[in-house]
Specification:
mainly alpha, about 65% helix, about 0% strand
Length: about 120
């Protein structure tokens, strides 16, 4: 039995979904706005990279004191800003997590439904 005869169409479908998800997440990155929350995140990332700031609390939600994510978010954002000061690189890096979430959702569904 060859590898092609045992190939299942679900991998082709998963590949197509991931391709569309990547296209949606990574197209038009340079046409967005750089608003106050992105400036806050970039400033925190630059502080981490320069060694003058090590946040222990994550960002607050807009117009609220609720914290939606922890301080790890700032350290993740610092990775692309260490490569380039261009905000598009940071947005692309975070959008790749969105693409990864598509695959992880597939894996979770496969495990929960025993497919």
């Amino acid at each position: 039995m060859s590898a092609l005869s045992s190939f299942d169409g679900k991998y082709l479908l998963l590949g197509a979904i991931l391709a569309v998800g990547t296209l949606v997440h990574l197209s038009g990155l340079d046409v967005g706005w750089f608003l106050q929350d992105q400036v806050r995140d970039a400033t925190a990332a630059q502080g981490i990279l320069s060694g003058r700031d090590f946040p222990l609390v994550g960002p607050h939600a807009a117009l609220s004191t609720v914290q939606l994510v922890g301080p790890l978010y700032y350290y993740l954002v610092a990775i692309p800003y260490g490569l380039s000061a261009n905000p598009v690189v940071g947005v692309a890096f975070l959008n790749l997590f969105g693409v990864a979430s598509i695959y992880l959702t597939y894996r979770l569904g496969r495990e929960c439904l025993a497919l």
